[in-house]
Amino acid sequence: MSLSKELARGTVMPIVLSLLAERSMYGYEIVKTVNQRSGGVLDFKEGTLYPLLHKMQGQRLIKAKWEDGPTGKPRKYYALTPKGNRLLDESREQWSTLSTAVHTLLMGA
Amino acid sequence: MSDFRDLTERATHRLRRDRELRLEVSRELESHLEASAAEYRAADYSEEDARAAAVKAFGDPDDVADALWDANRFRLKLRAWAWWGARATLLPACVAAVIVFILSGMTTLISVNHAVDGYEQGGVYNQWKKSRLQARMTPQQRLIFYGDEGRASEGRAARWRPLRDAYPDEPLYQLHLIAQMLSDLFSGGPEVLDLPEGLEQVRELRAELDRGAALDPDNGIYALIDAGLSAKRIDFHPDPPYAQQGGFGEDYPMHGGSGYGSSDQWGDVAADAEHDEDWPVAAEPIVVMVLKRDGDDGEREALEIERFPTPVDRAAVDAALHRLADAADHPYVAMHAVDRIRHRLDQLPPPESMLDYMIRVATEVGTLLPAMASSRHVARVACAEAITRAEAGDAAGALAILDDLDSVNARFAASSDTLIMLLVSWSMESLERGTRVAVWRVLGDEQRAGEALAESDTLMRFWWREWEEPKQNRPWDAMEKEAGLFLGVMMPAVPGYAVDPTAFRKAEYTLIDRVALTWGLVVLVFISALAPLQGVWSVWRKRDQPALLLWMGWRRLAWVLGLAVGVPIALFMVWSALPWSGRGFGLNYSFVALTAYLPLTLGVVVLLWVLGSEALRQRGRALGLAVPAKRGLRGLAVLGLAIAWLSATLWGAFWWAENPIYVTSLGWVIAIIVASVGATIVAVGWIVSEIVWLRGVENTRDALRKGLLVSLVAAFAFGGVLPVLTLLTVDDIDRVPFAIAMGGVGVLLGVVSGLFWVAGRPGPTSWFARSVVRSMGPTLGIAVLVLALVVGMGLNLRERALAQRLVADSPTFVNYEIERSQGKVIRAYLAGDAARPPRRP
Q: What's the pLDDT score for residue B664?
């Protein structure tokens, strides 16, 4: 099952922030990790990740640095900034509130 | 080329305005696609299927292109503005900084050289400084310090009369006006006294003297000046030979006086006088006596009295003697020269630079020189008249004249604030004592003559003991070296001169540091202006990959500037504090100190290139450019050794040239040769290591063949032409170190030009090489601005602090001469019981 585009769009940024809170990652690594951990549910077109990363970089949520990868080729690694970290905390709190409310409404618990 | 280049080109085509950003994004996308394809291959996809799967997973490149443009839109604008802003402002700002430094550094140096002329020399910049200084003063302060500048062309008196008129009851301004009138009167020589306009000026001057005497009734200077006007008309010679000797040579000081000298010399004066039938005035020069001294111990060898025919203007003599006696009746005889200097300098705001300090020195000299009046003429006329009266048998009259002279001289000595006034006083005293011997001999009283001679000898021995011997026993060399340019001509010549020259010396080095900084900035601006030409060259030669403007990033830039600029300057400061740097000596003796600037400049330029190009190499590598391998330590070690060798050879060459017993031009020639060899080694070491690095190791022979020759030719062309131009345009011995320095600059420019040319040649890493050269422009430009702002401002603040320290240390420079030297003892001896005049205002 894959999510609708509208539903996925609002979740990608917090997910990327969440991954980068763990460690610095390069673009392909982020895509693979998302796909892996979501079990394919959040399978988005890989090329769309980079505009998002650049946008987040422009908003100072993440920062980028070229470093040599394991093969010796340089890769562009992204890392969370303090501002991104704050936004991640807010997103987690909002998502928790939202998911509880939506779950209550949809599942009638 | 990457297999995904077509895809990435499509995905990034909307970023094409910013070539570096587009390359970076392309490189990132390619890296992604390669990783993706590699994973598919690992999952047993064929090569073609793996690529296709990676492309499919990536998504529609046109959608990505739109999204990338949208995400980077603000960044694109920002970078575009930044680049255009940098292009429009960086180079002009650098050029402006250099021009400001050239104007401030060089004109200050020139002005210091022409200290007496002060702001009047040095052109537009000095005039601007003067207007800034005046803007900080009230109209009253400007009038006191400058007088009425609008009337300066009419003469000194016209310039200063408005000040007196504004404050008619202030004796100091009255005295200042009189001093300026005296200066005007005799600016064309004493002959003016026989011309109608001169006589008119004398009439005006005498009116002002009467006015001054009424304002300041205790001061006998007005009467003495009046006596001088009469005496000067009697006692002058168009070209007196003693004026050339000046009184500071082998003989006793005379200061134009006729007291002590060699008999041959005075014979010439007499012969001139006798044969000059066109003598412009009625009187002829009067020479009273000659004292020969014996060699080195100050003891008298013989006293010879000579009397030359002197058809004297009796009325003038009587007038002079009358006014001399009048002066002797006053409590003090003071020109208040230092008081006038101090009062004028008090009007100035605190100095901001050494130029401001030098204008104070110039003011002192300008105030001092007209203050000499004509005391020595009075003394000569009085002594001649005393002998004349003795010959007529008028013993009382002769001795009365000498007593008056003695009395006035004691008062004049007591009021002496400057060395030159004290020496005039000494000259008058020695003349008066010698004449007393002559008078008693003429009167036939050998016993009194013997007593007078003993007194004269006592004075001579006192002088010898308190002035000549201490002067001769001073460590001249060491003092001159330590005193520096400002005090080097003064300190050793004035016995007991107790002035700490440290602040003066530091000020000298601050000035020369500013000049050196200017020199370094010129080099950097020249190179940074060359760098963008590489981009133009790429476009003109229609290279497939025109030079990129690589941006190393702020953090790397800070590191590069810190290491390339901060470290060499910090090392230079440490070196400057060490005794071997030569900075313990003034610039008048320590050319060694100047040699440190060359390795400093070389070090900054070399490190900027090496570290800057390494930072750009990392950036180029990230962007996927073909870049050379990281520099080996061997190349850097060779470069470091070459610079160290150059520094050592330069230092050694200068040291050798300064320290042998005979400093000959041969020494300088050898210094130049040795330094040139050192510079050549640096040039070759640099070129070889950099060309090999830029072109890639596999192309060493090719790179050397193509690059070494042109670099060396350019290096020696610049390195040869600049010293020759320097030698042709700079005067004096200074041109040798200047020529060497310019040779070093020339070699550097030649090497850099060669490197830039090499970078433009086709080859495996040529895109990177061209891009490095082009991108070094902004880096060097920022380095120029950092240097100008941080180091330049630092030096300016230091110079200001030193200038203010010098002013605070002593309100006037000439105060040093007597108050802090053996002059105090001489003054006390000559003044006897005479009281010091009260300070004014």
A: 55
CA B285/CA B307 separation, integer angstroms: 10
B743 phi, psi to nearest 5 deg? -60, -45
pLDDT in tens, B782-814: 888 888 889 888 988 998 899 888 888 776 666
| Residue whose pair of structure tokens reads 């021009």 in the numeric block | B99
Interchain CB contact of A92 with B (< 8 Å): no
Rounded to whole angstroms, how far apart are CA atoms B464 and B471?
10
Nearest to B537 by CA among B706, B703, B758, B226: B758
Mean pLDDT of B92-114: 72
Q: Nearest C-alpha of chain B: how many angstroms from A98?
A: 28
Say if the Cβ atoms of B35 and A28 lie within 8 Å: yes
B445, amino acid identity? D
Of A46, A54, A66, which is closest to B622 when you measure between CB atoms? A66
Task: With cut-offs at 50, 70 and 90, classify the pLDDT of residue B272.
Answer: very low
Contact B57 A76 (CB under 8 A): no
CA nearest neighbour of B366 among B227, B151, B543, B176: B176
- Residues B506, B560: Cα–Cα separation, whole Å: 30
Cβ burial of B101 (10 Å; 0-12, 13-18, 19+) is buried
Pairwise CB contact (< 8 Å): A58 & B59: no
**What are the chain B neighbours of A26 within 8 Å (beta carbons)?**
31-32
Rg value, chain A, Cα: 15
Task: Find, in chain B, the residue whose alpha carbon is nearest to that of A78.
Answer: B28
Interchain pair A47, B25: CB under 8 A: no
The letter for the amino acid at B576 is: S
- The average pLDDT across B62-68 equals 91
A49/A33 Cα distance (integer angstroms): 13
* The most confident of B128-132, B328-332, B337-341, by mean pLDDT: B328-332
Angle (deg, nearest 10), helices B395-414 and B314-328: 50
Q: Is the pLDDT of residue A60 over 50?
A: yes
pLDDT for the residue numbered B778: 85
Q: Please report the pLDDT score of residue B505 as a whole number.
A: 85
What integer pLDDT is reported at residue B591 of this predicted model? 64
